[in-house]
C-alpha cells in the first residue's frame, strides 16, 4: 500500500551554502498493509527514490545516488521508519536515445544496503534488486507512474 508519493527535499551540509541539498521523488510503500498481504515480509517498508525528471542541472542539485546515505537517514527519521524493516531502492526509469529514439536503456532498480550507526545510514552498497521483490516493486511503481504534485 502506498503511504507517501511526492517530491522530497533534503537539507544539505555547510550552513548557508547547503552543500549536497537536493530534491527527489520519494515513494514509500508498506507491504504489510497490502490487500493481498498474507505473506509476512521481514522488511515491509519499501522506500523508492528517483531523480526528478526534467530537473535542470544546478550547482546545488545532486543525484539520489550521491546522497543515498543522507536521504535514507532523513527519510527514516522523518517518516519514523525502523531502518531494520526498510528496503531502500533507487529507481531509474527506462530511457531512449538516438536520432530516432531507436535505442533504449531499460529501467534499473538498485537495492541499497547500509550499515546503521546511531540512527545514521553509512557505507551504502548497491546491488540489483532481486526477484521476487523486483517484480513487486516494478508493479507498485507502475501503479504510481504519474509524476507527483509538488
SSE run: EEEHEEEEEH
* Form type: globular
- What's the overall average pLDDT, rounded? 86
Separate helix tally: 2
Q: Flag low-confidence runs.
A: none
Classify the helix fraction into a percent range: 10-25%
Give the tally of β-strands: 8
Give a description of the structure.
The protein is mostly beta strands and 150 residues long. It has one domain. The protein is built from 2 helices and 8 strands; from the N terminus they run βββαβββββα. It has a 6-stranded mixed β-sheet. A two-stranded antiparallel ribbon has the order 5-6. The longest helix is centred in the middle third of the chain and has 11 residues, at 68-78. The model has no long low-confidence stretch (mean pLDDT 86).
Short note summarizing the structure:
The chain has 150 residues and is mainly β. Helices cover 15% and strands 37% of the residues. It has one domain (2-143).
Which descriptors apply to this entry?
single chain; 150 residues; mainly beta; six-stranded mixed β-sheet; two-stranded antiparallel ribbon; 2 helices; 8 strands; 15% helix; globular
